[in-house]
Amino acid sequence: MNFADSEILASILTADGYTPIDDYKKADLILVNTCSIRDHAEQRVFNRLNEFSSLKKRSPHVKIGIVGCMAERLKEHLLEEQLQVDLVAGPDAYRSLPLLLAQVEDGQKGINTILSESETYDDIKPVKTDTNGVTAFISIMRGCENFCAYCVVPYTRGKERSRNAETIIDEARLLFEQGYREITLLGQNVNSYKCGTVGFPQLIAQVAEINSQLRVRFATSHPKDISDELLTVIAQYDNVCKSIHLPVQSGSDATLQKMNRKYTRQWYLNRIEAIKRIIPDCTISTDIIAGFCGETEKDHNDTLTLMREVGYSSAFMFKYSERPDTFAAENYKDDVPEEIKLRRLNEIINLQRELSLASNEKETGLIREILIEGVSRRNLLQSYGRTSQNKVVVFDNPAQIKAGVYANVKILRCTPATLIGELTQSRAHR
Ligand code: SF4
Question: How far apart are CA 281 and CA 260, in angstroms?
């Protein structure tokens, strides 16, 4: 989401006469687009601010702004003198940046952290600043009202609202015309997208119909809302990618209830069964939190057994980190000792490594269509691309077939993270 938001920021500032540059040391204005989801993310921002304030000592004209979720959460506290921050803007305040910058030019501090019930930036054409020219994000909704007990997002990003469908289709069409071949539709809970009569299944079908050469992905789905109707649309269109990210967070009913996730283990497993039945070739990835408040050894084991039952292809795995002002912080004790959290997280990571390898081993011997995304960083004679199932494939590319081209590769071997393949055929069109 922040990546997509940075493109909106770049668009607003470009219209105000700024030009994005790669090297922050040469910038007149540095905006740090922040995340509050974990304490670690915020600490990294404070470390960066130290770096920027020494730059500011050398070049006092440089202006520093904090935008995004941390700006929303900490507000004027970020303007304390030692941080050397000039401007603070929450996720719904980006249109006011030119005004805030004018205030900063006048020697004041600029701050706007008002959340909106309607802002979707739908008329703003994002400026792509850091792109491979092949894959792009489109933000389709903002905010979240699920109020999972551990999560700060409903407080920092406000009410859920969907962007106008026509502007999404127009943006996707334009990106395709510019040469992009894969779009990821983004939102905190894309399954509850609604614009008039257009729900998420209809929206994804409309984007897929722009051109069969345009791949469509989406993130993230809340398990409580993933419908058979959506799964049927994914199965129907070849260019809607066969990979679903379905965050489970825990395999224990007691923990899920405390987390306010609004589904049970069995309900989640029924949804997994529906995915496997309707889209047999689909990979499933997830998010898992280790050591949530009150988590017992049995709860943790329930997570491990669920992971095995689903057979996730990959996962984002974290230790629980208490976030101020959330329901969990106000009502539960963060009572799982650090060393137990860490041990459980390691068990989860080790198991996932095993599952990822097993998932990748199933691919060996198959011929898969990939979309080439670029040259491998480790070996310039190799390229990499992604399968519809969201697996990265590295392959020798002596003919230097370019990014943005579809190619067939035979999968020869694998690691838990990567498939290694050989090119069998490439083509610019499906
Ligand atoms: S669905 Fe839950 S975890 Fe995801 S953004 Fe909303 S509140 Fe946070």
Answer: 31
In b/e form, how buried is each residue of 399-424, taking b as 16+ CB within 10 angstroms? Answer: eebebbbbbebbbeebeeebbbbebe
> Residue 337 above 80 pLDDT?
yes
CATH code for the part of the protein at 271-362 = 3.30.750.200
Four-way CATH pick for 2-112: 3.40.50.720, 3.40.50.12160, 2.60.40.1180, 3.90.25.10: 3.40.50.12160
What is the second-level CATH architecture of the domain 131-241?
2-Layer Sandwich (3.30)
Query: What values do phi and psi take at 353, rounded to 5?
Result: -60, -45
**11-53 residue pLDDT tens:** 999 999 999 998 999 999 999 999 998 899 999 999 999 999 8
User: 335 CA distance to ligand 1 centroid (A)?
Assistant: 22
Taking the centre of ligand 1 as the mean of its atom positions, its distance from the CA of residue 251, in whole angstroms, is 17
The answer, yes or no, to whether residue 383 has pLDDT greater than 60, is yes
Q: Is the CB of 153 inside a 6 Å radius of any atom of ligand 1?
A: yes
Q: Is 259 in the pocket of ligand 1 (CB under 6 A)?
A: no
Distance between CA 265 and CA 376 in Å, rounded? 39
pLDDT at residue 430 greater than cutoff 70: no
149 lines ligand 1 (CB under 6 A): no
227 lines ligand 1 (CB under 6 A): no
Looking at the CA of residue 151, tell me the nearest atom of ligand 1.
8
Does any ligand 1 atom lie closer than 6 A to the CB of residue 426? no
Q: Residues 6 or more apart from 90 whose CB is under 8 A from it?
A: 67, 68, 69, 71, 72, 112, 113, 114, 115, 156
**Mean pLDDT estimate for the chain:** 95
Assess whether the C-beta atom of 146 lies below 6 angstroms from ligand 1: yes
Q: What is the mean pLDDT of residues 109-134?
A: 92
Ranges for all domains in the chain classified under CATH 3.40.50.12160? 2-112
Between strands 382-387 and 419-427, the pairing is unpaired
CATH number of the domain located at residue range(s) 367-427 in this protein:
2.40.50.140
Higher pLDDT, 428 or 95: 95
Task: Read off the pTM.
Answer: 0.93
